[in-house]
Amino acid sequence: MSDLPKGKHAQIVLSASHLLLKFGGIVALNDVSIDVRDDELLAVIGPNGAGKSSLMNCLSGFYRPKAGEIRLGEHSIRGMGTHEVAARGLARTFQGTHIFSGMTVIENLMVGRHLHMRTNLIQSFCHFGPAVREEVAHREAVEEIIEFLEIESIRHSPVGSLGYGLRKRVDLGRALAQDPKILLMDEPMAGMNTEEKEDLARFILDVREAKRIPIVLVEHDMGVVMDLADRVAVLDFGRKIAEGTPKEIQADPAVLKAYLGEGVA
To answer: Second label for 80, Cα 20 to 30 Å away, from 54, 86, 92, 213?
Structure first.
């Protein structure tokens, strides 16, 4: 687990209160509340169908809850579109690799810079003056991310030609290219082998330590969760049944019964 200092009174950067999400007669989230504090990694765990991805979709604007409030900093983002939420500073990676396979690594990361581009269509089409200067500045930002994620050798490679672990690293890079205030990661290690998981876990730690970006992590690998998380929230059948430090969660009877299995120490 990270040894970065944390406190109960740290600033809350993302808050979801009493979320209710329904799909017809199915209740995906039932009165779920979480707070994400500045400079922490909050893991969200639970069995399949517990509501983890539904929560991430609500936070990022893909789903609109029937009730409840979501605040990013001082601003309510409930009901905003995904592009509006992204513009407020929330970036997300997905369980799969939602990147452009026919584009190169650099081109995919430049897509992540789109929110920060200010030149108009004519300037961009003619490629002169402000458009050139802006492109150079954004390219420099992308190159810093490429160096940070140690993917210099594949910067010009089409993403579709890369192995799964590298594609997931590019997905993280594109999210970082948004210069986010908070990062959501939905099962980033799904489908990875042990070596790929170790690499990505190292980069997640580097993001926290070098960039000080709060992270919300949905992950099934309990070893990863217990090593990386400062706090853990547990969902079961759409409800939050526990929240605490990894050590507290490991010893919580409700968690042992619902997720880790009874009798697991």
So the answer is: 213
Residue 104, SS3 per DSSP:
strand
Segments of the chain assigned to CATH 3.40.50.300: 12-89+180-260
Q: Which of 93-97, 233-237, 240-244 has the lowest mean pLDDT?
A: 93-97
182 Cβ contact list (under 8 Å, min separation 6): 13, 14, 36, 72, 89, 90, 91, 213, 214, 215, 216
Task: For residues 39 and 45, give the distance between their C-alpha atoms in angstroms, rounded to a whole number.
Answer: 20
**Three-class DSSP category at 52:** helix
pLDDT digits (tens, 9 = 90+) for 148-186: 999 999 999 999 999 988 999 999 999 999 999 999 999
Global pTM value = 0.84
| CATH class (in words) of the domain with range 12-89+180-260 | alpha beta
Residue pLDDT, tens place only, 9-40: 579 999 999 999 999 889 999 999 999 999 89
Strand order in the sheet with 75-76: 26-37, 12-23, 67-72, 75-76
